[in-house]
Specification:
Order of helices and strands: EEHEEEEHHHHH
Helix content: 25-40%
Number of domains: 2
CATH superfamily of the largest domain: LON domain-like
Structural class: alpha+beta
Distance between the termini: 54 Å
Strand content: 15-25%
Largest sheet: 5 strands, mixed, barrel
CATH class of the largest domain: Mainly Beta
Oligomer: single chain
């Protein structure tokens, strides 16, 4: 069982209906940690409902084409990741600062018609996320670190390399995926990767494409 799954050992341990929080370019992965600043009234109510129940919230992205429902709300993609609220702090101005710990990915079976101000969906969890991902041993760690270092250098960024070098593959791949400054479609590709090895390969490919694009833009500016 991956870190962050708490007592969720089987799909039967998970709810079939969860509140969903559409947020562009937000990537939560199983075992990952996502801090959120909650201020919109309906999402404050969503957090209250989660805390009164199983503390689970589904992070999901709006559709990439900007499609809207009849009520003006965005359509959403099919795959997201549920997270458990592991900490909550109330601010003095009516906001919540929360942290979500990724539990497992899910596919939307149907969106429900509800009276709550926040959206809720019936879901089908990815049961494999509750098991240990053995593909982490097959991750090309040197290629991943090389791509990440090149990206940091190209963008004049720095990282705590001591912490990076100590991180095991699963933590490294997921942390780099979540912090990568890519757009919604790229984030979704990382989320939907079949396993850690595939996610690492996707992250390396995205990073190499971003570096190549930056080099092309730099070359064009010199002409």
């Amino acid at each position: 069982m991956q870190a962050g799954n708490f007592n969720y050992r089987r799909v039967a341990d998970l709810p079939s209906v969860i509140p969903v929080f559409p947020l562009p370019a937000a990537l939560l992965l199983p075992g990952g940690r996502m801090p959120l600043n909650i201020f919109e009234p309906r999402y404050l109510q969503m957090v209250d409902a989660a805390m009164a129940g199983d503390r689970l919230i589904g992070m999901i992205q709006p559709s990439f084409d900007g499609a809207l429902r009849e009520d003006g709300e965005p359509e959403i993609v099919n795959v997201g990741c549920m997270g458990r609220v592991t900490s909550l702090t109330e601010t003095g101005d009516g906001r919540y600062m929360i942290a979500l710990q990724g539990v497992c990915r899910f596919r939307i079976a149907e969106e429900l018609e509800v009276k709550s101000p926040f959206r809720q969906c019936r879901i089908s969890p990815f049961g494999a996320d509750l098991e240990e991902d053995l593909s982490g041993a097959e991750v090309d760690r040197p290629a991943l670190l090389k791509a990440f270092r090149s990206y940091l250098e190209a963008n004049d960024l720095d990282a705590d390399w001591n912490s990076v070098s100590r991180a095991e593959n699963a933590m490294l791949v997921n942390a780099l995926s979540m912090m990568a400054p890519y757009g919604p479609a790229e984030k979704q590709a990382l989320l939907e990767a079949a396993d850690l090895k595939s996610r690492a390969e996707t992250l390396i490919a995205l990073t190499e494409m971003a570096l190549a694009r930056d080099n092309e833009d730099f070359g064009s500016s010199l002409q």
